[in-house]
Amino acid sequence: MSSIGPQGVAAADFSNALDEFAGVVGKDRVYVDEQPLSSYRDAYSPLADGEFLPSAAVAPDGVEQIQKTLKIANAYKIPIWTIGTGRNFAYGGPAPRKSGYVMLDLRRMNRIIEVNEKYGYALVEPGVSYMQLYRHLRAIGSKLWIDPAAPAWGGVMGNALEHGAGYTPYGDHFIMQCGMEVVLADGEVVRTGQGALAGSKHWQVTKHAAGPQFDGMFTQSNFGVVTKMGIWLMPEPPGYKPFMITYEREEDLEAIFEITRPLKVNQIIPNAAVAVDLLWEASAKVTRRHYFDGKGPLPQSARTRIASDLKLGMWNYYGALYGPPPIIENNWKIVEEALMSIPGAKLYLDRENDPAWDYRVRLMRGEPNMTEFSIMNWIGGGGHVNFSPISAPSGAEALAQYNMIKRRCHEYGFDYIGEFLVGWRDMHHILMIMYDRADEAMRTRAYDLFGLLVDEAAEIGFGEYRTHLAFMDQIAKTYKHNDGALWDLHHRIKDVMDPNGILSPGKQGIWPKAMRETS
Amino acid sequence: MMAWKLTRRDVLGAGALGTAAVGLGTLARSKPGRGRTVTLVEESGVPESRQFAAALIDSGFAGEVIRIDQSLNGLLHELEATTGTIIGMTSDPAAMIAGQLLGERGAHSRHFWQHHYTNGRWRHRIEGGARLIGNTTHAWPVAIAHQLQSAIGNRSPQVSNACTSGACALLASSPGMLVSWVYEFEGHQS
């Protein structure tokens, strides 16, 4: 049995609570031994081993069991940490915010409750993965696409709740969410939107019903346990034209996004347009050791050789057009003329033996895969943590972020490995800080670099859209308009909705009252 | 899924023939347990993984082979129904994915050896004797296959060890960091 217990809970109470949990979900669905609990570790943690370990896990299979579990947690004031699939290892995976929490593992709740071909949506439970939904749609002969995040084992619900993004025109997952069922901390079950109307048949179609819209409150938060969620699915288009354009110079980034902005705002390019840096792209094919086995960032000579060997640019731009072929061809003329106007641009409509092209093309047509994990081979040792500032789709802002972040990466001995992704009017910048987990000094430098970047980005006006567990408090504190009024509001809501502070304490820097003083 | 009463008992016992020493020319005859299913994972794009797999297939040790390509999708498709012993030498990401999928189904990690190419040599962190492994350069995956096969059948605790190969080049499609790993499910004798 794990030697860790929830902070502030007497051992006898904890033992009683575990017995009561077992009475709800069955003894074989309460995990307390080291081996099953090890699967809740953050496999790529930027912290030392031994941080963020749970004391136990409870795996209910339905709403009623969740209600009973929360009742017990309230009675003993046991903090619980909810996961759907727990697969996003760039941000902490399944691990809890603090050691000792009890995992509320919803992976058994993996039912695809409905697929509606006519209106293009699915209603899913928290444990449904992209691969599972994809396979299900193919098995039933559906002509609907999913929009997967890069790793196929990610959760459809969890990714939307974490404001995640994909690569088809339905890539903003929270925008594509429609209708939730939520169990509140006191066990009450609430359905949002038209789900609250008895007999409604349009819960997953109409986002805006009477009254305030609460769905956003249950994303990146700890105000409830979401148990069902509608997600819109894109009908298979009659045509699909993926493309890749390579750009020779780092400073081309500014022109790339000045050109991209009108193409995106006007939806000429309907999916997420992505500019991927040389090393991210190369790491799907080769490792750093093949070009340079020394310490510190890769020398420019090696970068030049990689670009030449692999026919890559310093930036590699992916996008796709969708729809009836005549419309695609019309829009393509506009896209090609605009994006190829940058000197040195090279266009690819197909690339042979290129796993990076292959997985991007699959993602942009809604086919989940696991290829992105291959890029962890770049350094070896698998450690990575994503720093993800958001901004407007401005070329000048992209270049300013890139220059600032690359300089810091190099100072700390890391390669810059990143991509910029433009949604409708937003730009996500994903820096992947890669390190060898077995190299303690490197891991510590990665952690320090991340913390520095959070503060420096905030100083020039960039916040992060999501983050690893270890940085949630720091990032929360950068949202400090009017003396931190927004997080004060989060805390006021938390105290009312979850007075015992049992639901995921510390998630996104939102702590229950009793833990705020000590966090 | 994982069970409440999973305890660390040695399932490798009865019927397992521990071998004391292995060499490149002689194959160990150890088995993980009488009638027990052994599934081998080969990452086909990785040359060391292919060498490792070929050695275990040739020895008749592996009953089933799962071959995964660079998409790593095969891990999701093929590991769902595995039982018994699952063994592989793969890139570090593939090992992590396999570990997550098998661990949450209740499999126990039995061995986790690391092989890291740096400064023109392979560095191995293994269990048991290291001399043979250190003396090999390009054939080291074969030596690891034999040593791991022996370790699976060995009931006594193995000593952690490290060694470094002689100077050698890194093969073109090698990830340069590999893990040889063994997971076992308890109570699933086939």
From TrEMBL, chain A:
SUPFAM superfamilies attached to this UniProt entry: FAD-binding/transporter-associated domain-like, FAD-linked oxidases, C-terminal domain
Cited InterPro entries: Cytok_DH_C_sf, FAD-bd_oxidored_4_C, FAD-bd_PCMH, FAD-bd_PCMH-like_sf, FAD-bd_PCMH_sub1, FAD-bd_PCMH_sub2, FAD-linked_Oxase-like_C, Oxid_FAD_bind_N
A biological process from GO: lactate catabolic process
Keywords: FAD, Flavoprotein, Oxidoreductase
Species for this entry: Sphingopyxis bauzanensis
Domain of life: Bacteria
Domain FAD-binding PCMH-type: 50-236
Cofactors (names): FAD
Name of the molecule in the record: Oxidoreductase
Molecular functions (GO terms): D-lactate dehydrogenase (cytochrome) activity; D-lactate dehydrogenase (NAD+) activity; FAD binding
